[in-house]
Amino acid sequence: MQANQVEFSGILIQRDALRYTPAGLPLIECKILHESQQIEANMARQVKVELAALAVGDIAKKLSQLELAQTLSVSGFLAQKSQKSSHIVLHICSLENI
């Protein structure tokens, strides 16, 4: 199996309404804003990125109760938004308020 694990922290800037899949699982989509300074080629670099994310199951319910502007730490994996889309989405597998 190839590695596909992401740890990401940032501010919750957008959260859609909780909805349910055809199988009855809760699902929610959101956007997380990350800003930091990273070292690249021995040089400091300012990083700012908005990452689309989604959560399914109990994590979706937990995410639906959070207020916007809360700082989060999440982990999960990257996947295409759909089979027909090349947009990348972080699938959240764990979530912690910071």
Description:
It is a single chain. The chain contains 1 helix and 6 strands. By secondary structure, the chain is mainly beta. The chain has a single domain (about 5-95), classed as Nucleic acid-binding proteins (OB fold (Dihydrolipoamide Acetyltransferase, E2P), Beta Barrel). It has a 5-stranded mixed barrel. A hairpin with a 5-residue loop joins strand 2 (about 20) and strand 3 (about 25-40). The radius of gyration is 14 Å and the shape is globular. This is Replication restart protein PriB.
Compact summary:
With 98 residues, the chain is mainly beta.
Layout of secondary structure:
Blueprint: E1 6-15, E2 19-20, E3 26-40, E4 43-56, H1 58-64, E5 71-80, E6 88-97
Parallel strand pairs: 4-6
Antiparallel strand pairs: 1-3, 1-5, 2-3, 3-4, 5-6
Structural key phrases:
mainly beta; 5-stranded mixed β-barrel; OB fold (Dihydrolipoamide Acetyltransferase, E2P); 98 residues; single chain; 1 helix
Low-confidence stretches: none
- According to CATH, the fold-level topology is OB fold (Dihydrolipoamide Acetyltransferase, E2P)
Strand content: over 45%
Radius of gyration from CA coordinates: 14 Å
The number of helical elements comes to: 1
| Structural category | mainly beta
Q: Which CATH class is shown?
A: Mainly Beta
How many domains, in number, for the residues? 1
| Helical content band | under 10%
The spatial strand order of the largest sheet comes to 1-3-4-6-5
The count of DSSP E runs of length 2 or more, i.e. the number of strands, is 6
At CATH's second level, what is the architecture?
Beta Barrel
Overall morphology: globular
Straight-line N-to-C gap: 31 Å
What is the string of helix and strand elements? EEEEHEE
Average pLDDT for all residues:
96
How would a textbook summarize the main sheet?
5 strands, mixed, barrel
Fourth-level CATH superfamily: Nucleic acid-binding proteins
